[in-house]
UniProtKB/TrEMBL annotation:
PANTHER family per record: OUTER MEMBRANE PROTEIN ASSEMBLY FACTOR BAME (PTHR37482:SF1)
Any one cellular-component term (Gene Ontology): Bam protein complex
Lineage per the UniProt record: Bacteria, Pseudomonadati, Pseudomonadota, Betaproteobacteria, Burkholderiales
Protein name per Swiss-Prot or TrEMBL: Outer membrane protein assembly factor BamE
Domain of life: Bacteria
Main localization category: membrane
Subunit and interaction comment: Part of the Bam complex.
Gene Ontology BP annotations: Gram-negative-bacterium-type cell outer membrane assembly; protein insertion into membrane
InterPro entries: BamE, BamE-like, BamE_dom
Start-end of Low complexity biased regions: 133-162
Keyword set, alphabetical order: Cell outer membrane, Membrane, Signal
Gene assigned in the entry: bamE
């Protein structure tokens, strides 16, 4: 996308469209990998790391835990933890790079929200009067409610069993 179309799609570069954070895969933190020990069964590994994202029938002795995190304005984070088995027992585990601790991961997820006083959630009487259409003097809440009558010939089942 060239510079002109980028500026037009963001209203002159002032307003950008909102893009949601995208989390995909298994989040694996440093404490989980440190808890793994060679000789653990597949069930024990699964209890610590969860169900693997990739468990191929062609690589029955390998589980891959893949995680990607995409947030607007930041580079995509991608982490892979691979666990190898010898039969039903874990042989080794390897992570592609430094894994964050649980505390570091949670801190990275927190979104900075504007601090300040929350706006009022109810309009004042003056604001309601200003919002009334021209020529209307009565508020809708002051108007009597029309009685609810069923259509002629309508038959409804009772609300409660007798």
């Amino acid at each position: 996308m060239d510079g002109l179309s980028q500026r037009l799609s963001t209203l002159g570069g002032v307003i950008t469209p909102y893009r949601i954070d995208i989390l995909q895969g298994n989040v694996v933190v440093r404490e989980q990998v440190e808890a793994l020990q060679p000789g653990m069964s597949r069930q024990q590994v699964q209890a610590i790391l969860g169900t693997p994202l990739v468990a191929s029938i062609f690589h029955a002795d390998r589980w891959d835990y893949v995680f990607t995190y995409q947030r607007q304005g930041q580079p995509v984070q991608r982490r892979v933890v691979t666990v190898w088995f010898d039969g039903d027992r874990m042989a080794r585990a390897q992570a592609d790079g430094e894994l964050p601790t649980e505390r570091e991961f949670v801190a990275a997820l927190q979104v900075r929200r504007p601090t300040g006083e929350a706006p009022p959630l109810q309009a004042s009487d003056d604001q309601l009067k200003a919002a009334q259409p021209a020529g209307s003097t009565a508020r809708a809440a002051d108007a009597p409610a029309a009685p609810a009558t069923p259509p002629a010939g309508a038959s409804y089942p009772p609300l409660e069993a007798r």
